[in-house]
Automatic annotation (TrEMBL):
The protein's name: Arginase
Signal peptide limits: none
Domain of life according to the entry: Bacteria
MF term (GO), any: hydrolase activity, acting on carbon-nitrogen (but not peptide) bonds, in linear amidines
Length: 287
């Protein structure tokens, strides 16, 4: 297993689980803060190509990769990782948001799923855990590739489409073992990529830059372990740290002010390190 700490926003290097692994040469540190501001929230083509070139230039090994990105504002970088995992692939995506909106610029933390769905080698994207109201805004959905997308909300009150009220099954009300059996039976490829935004978790298990869901960490870990028994997990990435918002770009500042909640003054950021320890240890166990 190859653990990469991609330092885009200074949210990761000081966390004890990562600092210890870097000191023991069990994780690689990649200083990328010079690119961070241009990539955060959304990116124009130039900075995105710079990150792509950096990623493609890293030495390749047979070991599976776990990449840690920092804030969920960088989730669109997952498209670079998934693009590089050549061969038939399914993507299992844990997130409080479907990240399926049409946006400008195109490379946006709220729209990257569209880019992944358009990749010919990606046969399925399964999004697990959203509670946000993004899933009840049909106008924001991606279009041509919806047949490759499944969404399983943790909790959702329903959406009104052209045919009336469409109600999604809530995982919070389901037998988790039954859901996992159905998920395992439905995935069309032997190879998987797992991408995690910790905003899928409740605030007592992560502190993030976004509104949060309610999927328990224990359920997330159980899912990773079960999938590893049945599939080859070729790589994974984790985002969803909290990083102070200080955009230089006025349009990003406005978008963040409109869309992102403010951090509660009593927030315990140490919970992110504890959750990362659990997740990293889980991947170390399966790999």
């Amino acid at each position: 297993m190859r653990t990469l700490v991609l330092d885009l926003d200074d949210s990761l290097p000081g966390q004890p689980p990562l600092a210890a692994r870097m000191a023991a040469h069990r994780a690689e540190y990649h200083p990328l803060r010079r690119l961070g501001p241009a990539l955060r929230l959304w990116s124009l083509a130039g900075p995105f190509r710079s990150f792509q070139a950096y990623w493609r230039g890293l030495p390749r090994t047979a070991a599976p990769v776990l990449a840690l990105l920092g804030s969920g504002d960088f989730h669109h970088l997952s498209a670079c990782f998934i693009e590089s995992a050549a061969g038939p692939l399914s993507v299992v995506h844990f997130d409080n948001h479907p990240d399926w909106a049409w946006t400008f610029p195109r490379r946006h933390c709220g729209s990257w799923v569209n880019e992944v769905l358009a990749m010919p080698h990606v046969q399925r994207v399964v999004t697990i855990g959203p509670c946000s109201d993004d899933i009840i805004r049909p106008r924001r959905r991606a279009g041509p590739w919806l047949h490759k997308l499944e969404i399983h909300p943790w909790w959702n009150s329903g959406a009104r489409g052209s045919d009336g009220v469409v109600r999604a099954r809530n995982l919070a009300d389901c037998d988790w073992h039954v859901f996992l059996a159905e998920l395992i039976a439905s995935l069309p490829t032997e190879r998987l990529w797992i991408t995690i935004d910790k905003d899928v978790l409740a605030p007592d298990e992560a502190v993030t830059n976004w509104d949060q869901g309610g999927l328990p960490l224990a359920r997330l870990v159980e899912t990773i372990r079960r999938l590893a028994r049945h599939f080859t997990i070729v790589g994974a990435d984790i985002c969803g740290e909290y990083a102070p918002i200080n955009h230089r770009n006025p349009f990003k500042s406005l978008e963040a002010r409109l869309d992102q909640p403010r951090l509660p003054p009593q927030a315990d950021l140490a919970v992110n390190a504890r959750t990362n320890e659990t997740l990293i240890s889980t991947f170390e166990e399966i790999w």
